[in-house]
Amino acid sequence: MSNDIANFYRRVRVDGHRLERLYPGWRVEAHVSLSDNISAVVFTEEKSLRRAAWFLNSRFDYCGSHIEFLSKLDTDDVLDTVAHAYKALYRTSLSKKPSRIASGEDISAMPEFLSLHLSLAWSARNIRNISVSSKAEITQKAADQPELIGQWRIAGITRLLDTRITAETLIILSPYDDKPLRSQLSFMIEDLLVHRFYDDDAEAAFYLIWRRSGLNDPPGLYLPDTGLVISDLEFPALIPAKILAWMLINPAHVQVIEHAQHFDPENFGLGRTSDMTNLAPKPEVLPEHKPTYQRADLISPAWAFLSQSDASNAKDQDATPAPDMAATKPAREAPSPSGFLSRLRRKI
């Protein structure tokens, strides 16, 4: 992927006219070649750190700043340039054991904003099993009719929803069979803190998610093998796509997960194991961070994300459009609890 900005202004055409300048405060963050015929430019407004994207064809014509509304380019053609990568991540790193993606491009050079932009649109078309529940709904379901969700026990799921972040490594009890699991990976994507766990017996990954400004609040939970997202956050259906977007531009996650330490009873004493369900420690609250998004009429899950950026708030002007002024025109049967903790107590 190219970061050659020097030739950018000489080549780009907007409505047939050469681009001579951007509006004050905007700069080119990256020019990303998605294929021989398609590229994207990410802009940043220096004071507000707002971002916007332009999509360009092989002639460097401006084709739009909203992936769902492009001219001179087909949205599916744009998504085809990254579809193989998102599909591979969805089948491996997101839900099971990770694998390296074979790619001729340096995907890690893609800005996060563009990866999110593409991931939301791809996920809206390809991840069809997403369902969303609130914590209250799951808690009520567990009280009224204890049962399984896929291969996961509801009692274990509701326990996870009371997890609290601590200063130490995050260790929880698996909702599959109650064995302790250690967080393999944690990362920030936008305003979300995400922890990844993997259960070898269930052969499945799952995620706990907090908002950065709400680490004292109960987490959300994402179970990729069932498609269930349990969260009281805004736009919870976008969580899978955001995780995929982060994984795409952070290929080192494969090595981190492969080398992640498993739970070791000798390093985690009896008293602490017994107290895991109490989850009493609470973290220091980080400074308040207000999300930059606002609600919008949701045309699709992709639109929900894109409405958070100023790329969709376009206006027509006689001058060469700046990034925020670009016109966008609509045209199992689960096992019984393993008794792991009781065996662990006898061992210790």
Q: Mind explaining what this structure looks like?
A:
The chain is of the alpha+beta class and 348 residues long. The protein contains ten helices and 16 strands. It has helices at 8-11, 75-91, 112-126, 135-144, 154-160, 239-249, 253-258, 270-274, 301-306, 340-347; strands spanning 13-14, 17-18, 26-33, 39-45, 51-56, 62-64, 131-133, 148-149, 152-153, 171-173, 180-182, 185-189, 192-199, 204-211, 220-223, 228-230. Strands 7-16-15-14-13-12 form a six-stranded mixed β-sheet. It has a four-stranded antiparallel β-sheet with strand order 3-4-5-6, with no helix packed on it. Helix 2 (75-91) crosses helix 6 and helix 3 (112-126) packs across helix 6 (239-249). The radius of gyration is 22 Å and the shape is elongated. The termini are far apart.
Helix fraction bin = 25-40%
Note the main sheet: 6 strands, mixed
Characterize the overall form: elongated
Rounded to an integer, what's the Rg over CA atoms?
22 Å
Q: Catalogue the unreliable spans.
A: 270-321, 323-348
Order of helices and strands: HEEEEEEHHEHEEHEEEEEEEHHHHH
Give the N-terminus to C-terminus distance in angstroms: 53 Å
The proportion of residues in beta strands is 15-25%
What spatial order of strands do you see in the largest sheet? 7-16-15-14-13-12
Class by SSE composition = alpha+beta
Mean pLDDT: 77
